[in-house]
Amino acid sequence: MVFELPKLPFETTALEPYMSAKTLEFHYGKHHQTYVNNLNNLIKDTDLAAENLENIVLKTAGKEDKTAIFNNAAQAWNHSFFWSCLTPNGGGALPEGKFKEAVLHSFANEEKFKDELKSAAVSQFGSGWAWVVADKDKIKILKTGNADTPIAHHLTPLLTIDVWEHAYYLDYQNRRPDYVQTLIDKLLNWHFAASNFSAL
After folding, report:
1. pLDDT tens for residues 85-123?
2. Which of 28, 38, 123, 149 is surrounded by the most beta carbons within 10 Å?
3. Between 3.55.40.20, 3.40.50.300, 3.30.1360.10, 1.10.287.1490, what CATH number should domain 98-198 receive?
4. d(CA 185, CA 114)
């Protein structure tokens, strides 16, 4: 199959002033598009050409001779997931329900949960991602470097924060903590995380 850049779930101006249309133009329109293009070129005429994106990630994870395919497939998957983790008028309190109950069971309180998510995002050395994942019925926070993704480790992603520099440098320069805090306060789509948890 030939992969295409998925449509954003919002207009490119919808996240302003917290994430600019210019950032989305580069991050989505150039970086994400490049991962998709590279993946299509790498899998053309191979036994992976008929696989879906998640299967490509799983079949190439940890295989040295498939590193380029894994990196581009995982980055394509991670970015497609990331766009759904953002929403205008996001952030704020967690929605009532099973997800919030699981968060409170795994963490002392909602504030501690958000503090640990911020800490994971800010402390990831170099490029990578901070994740809220489900490990069976337990909520965990972890970080991955570069293109690595929880699906390669058989964990279920619920929400992610992209901390590659291209995600924030035009708007926040080197102020990664400000970018992360703004996402947590204003843009994260907790309803998306809750629906992912409910689907388990």
Report:
1. 999 999 999 999 999 999 999 998 999 999 999 999 999
2. 149
3. 3.55.40.20
4. 10
